[in-house]
Amino acid sequence: MSMPRKNVPASVLAVCALLAMGAGTVRTAAQYSRPKPAEGSGKGPLTGHLVKTGLYMFSGASNSLLRLTSNGLLVVDGQTAEHYDALQEHIDKISDQVVRLLITTDQHPAHTANNTQFAADGTQILAHANVAKHLAAGRTAGATTTPPTRTYDDHFNLTMGGIGVQLMHFGNAHTDADSVVYFTNLKVVAVGDLYAGTPDPDFASGGSLVGWGPVLGEILKLDFDVVVPGTGPTVTRADLVAYKARIDALVSRATALVKKGVAKDQLMALLETDDPGWRFAFTGSRLDSFYAELARTP
Fold first, then answer.
1. 95 located within any domain
2. Distance between CA 214 and CA 142 in Å, rounded?
3. Which of 156, 150, 157, 164 minimizes the C-alpha distance to 54?
4. Domain limits at 163?
5. Is residue 75 included in any domain, yes or no?
6. pLDDT in tens for each of the 298 residues of the chain?
7. How many domains are there within the chain?
8. What is the CATH number of the domain that holds 162?
9. Residue 175 in domain
10. Taking the CB of residue 143, how many other CB atoms lie within 10 A of it?
């Protein structure tokens, strides 16, 4: 598949160019002044383990990844607010290098709640363009989450300390701002909330259950063997294949019901979900959005 690269350099973007955008704010290791959290100061449990060489996962209410490079550290998703100190405590046990880049896989607090703290430490933040849009809307409503310092539209390549990373947005699924983070040399893909116990489209943020299966189909074109979801343990490529099949079957059934003329207020009662093991409670505007996207499906 040939992917458009709007607002992205034609070749691989060296991360030094990304960091240079914040000239005067990005600190060197010697200037990095964040005090180390006291041992055990993090609120709530946070566990960590090695995924593959140089890649660690930390899990609490959500998952974060730490990628080691020769030019600083890269973090994917910065945890919920109560786990910031615990996350930093885990990172400090592994490396004394600077966290130079934070990637967030969507705009929800499980991924972005600590943007402000990371930014205060001089970390640059990279996310899909719609993350900035949603966070800006939240700030208008009184929220205070710091927006990304750099955004992309469809595909973003970077090299940091000799480590190549690809970010891809394949379409609307959990939100309209989902990022897939692909660690090419490790064959690991971080998918955020595109893999979860139950698919949960945020329709208010452009999410789509109809679009979810095709997005997973694009991910499955990549060469990987480990999937890191937004919550829960890592899973395999086969698990992602099975997850996509369940979503496809569910959407097919729901579409067939709508095409047969089943009324919106009867849809959820008639939609069989026992075999995938999911329980959906779409009501109100969420039901309106789900029904409308099914009605548009050819």
1. yes
2. 35
3. 164
4. 13-237
5. yes
6. 333 333 444 334 445 556 544 433 333 343 344 445 444 444 568 999 999 999 999 999 999 999 999 999 999 999 999 999 999 999 999 999 999 999 999 999 999 999 999 999 999 999 999 999 999 987 655 668 999 999 999 999 999 999 999 999 999 999 999 999 999 999 999 999 999 999 999 999 999 999 999 999 999 999 999 999 999 999 999 999 999 999 999 999 999 999 999 999 999 999 998 888 898 889 999 999 999 999 999 8
7. 1
8. 3.60.15.10
9. yes
10. 13
